[in-house]
Design a protein that fits this description.
- The protein is of the alpha+beta class.
- It folds into two domains: 123 residues, D-amino Acid Aminotransferase, Chain A, domain 1 (2-Layer Sandwich), CATH 3.30.470.30; 107 residues, OB fold (Dihydrolipoamide Acetyltransferase, E2P).
- 17% of the residues lie in helices and 33% in strands.
- The strands form four sheets. Strands 1, 2, 3, 4, 5 and 6 form a six-stranded mixed sheet that branches. Strands 9, 10, 11, 12, 13 and 16 form a six-stranded antiparallel sheet that branches.
Length: 284
């Protein structure tokens, strides 16, 4: 399954547990329930690769709910309701497992994590024909699935070893500015978004749905604190306020039109570019 949350590595060490983001930030303090559950695995050493999520009433992961639990981008709250779904085991009892085949690591992961855990859980794995599995996932209202080569070793980075198959279009776009709201004081009306094309940023339109009035005010406060000295994209709009391109907005949309703009975009949440947030590349 393609979990809609934060990719994390849970390091279980003899005297402590560390929870690190993909960009190397220590977020242990933000996931106390996951930390407490991981301590139960000690004194064995291990590194679990997985995703922290918050589930909605239907049992589906929801990135917006996770961000709300954390207090938003830059928030200080602790996400006690977050759950960690582990899908890989990179290190166990003094041994680096990354050179082993994925199916061998999976077997060890299943042995390491007891079934029925309430906070740290095993991400379900299904073998079969990809199109049929994807169709079933979409029927359940899930975001999509991840396809993996069972014979492959573990390799860091985005190297194409894993294929993300989506039910809906959902990608990260760099926030390059905003348009102030004329209806809600101190809020934004739209975020201005860009995709990558090589080393440059290309404007792909704005998004004005998916956030509440409070979120719109919080977003304006965050972005106004980081004004751009030079506009990050070539865009002439009278009411545009440009910011430094340091945030990645998760956006759902139906397509990118022939003139390079997002169609029916909706805002899901904000990530930090510094934390290796995925950014849509127009060359792909």
């Amino acid at each position: 399954m393609n979990w809609d949350g934060y990719r994390l590595a849970v390091h279980v060490e003899p005297s402590r547990v560390r929870i690190l983001t993909r960009g190397g930030h220590d977020w242990t303090h933000r996931f106390p329930a996951i930390e407490a559950a991981a301590k139960v695995f000690g004194p064995t050493t291990m590194i679990l690769d997985g995703e922290a999520v918050v589930l909605d009433e239907g049992g589906r992961s929801n990135f917006g709910l996770l961000q709300a639990a954390l207090g938003g981008r830059g928030g200080k709250r602790e996400a006690d309701e977050a759950r960690f779904y582990a899908f890989d085991l990179l290190y166990f009892d003094g041994h680096d497992l990354r050179g082993m085949e994925q199916r061998e690591r999976r077997t060890m992961l299943e042995d390491a994590i007891a079934e029925g855990g309430t906070v740290i859980r095993l991400s379900e794995e299904i073998e079969g024909e990809g199109a049929a599995i994807l169709a079933h996932a979409c029927k359940l209202g899930l975001e999509g699935i991840i396809a993996k080569d069972r014979r492959a070793p573990y390799r860091s980075g985005r190297l194409g070893d894993w294929l993300k198959l989506k039910c809906i279009q959902s990608d990260g776009f760099i926030v390059v500015g905003y348009e102030p709201s004329t209806k809600v004081t101190g809020a934004i009306s739209r975020l201005l978004l860009a995709a990558r094309r090589g080393d440059e940023l290309v404007y792909v339109g704005g998004v004005g749905t998916g956030f509440t009035d409070k979120m719109a005010r919080d977003l304006r406060k965050q972005l106004a604190a980081m004004p751009a000295k030079v506009p990050p994209v070539a865009l002439k709009r009278k009411n545009a306020v440009f910011c430094e391109p340091v945030f990645v907005a998760e956006i759902t949309y139906t397509e990118i039109t022939s003139d390079g703009k997002l169609r029916h975009p909706s805002f899901k949440g904000l990530r930090e570019l510094a934390d290796n947030g995925d950014v849509f590349d127009l060359k792909k």
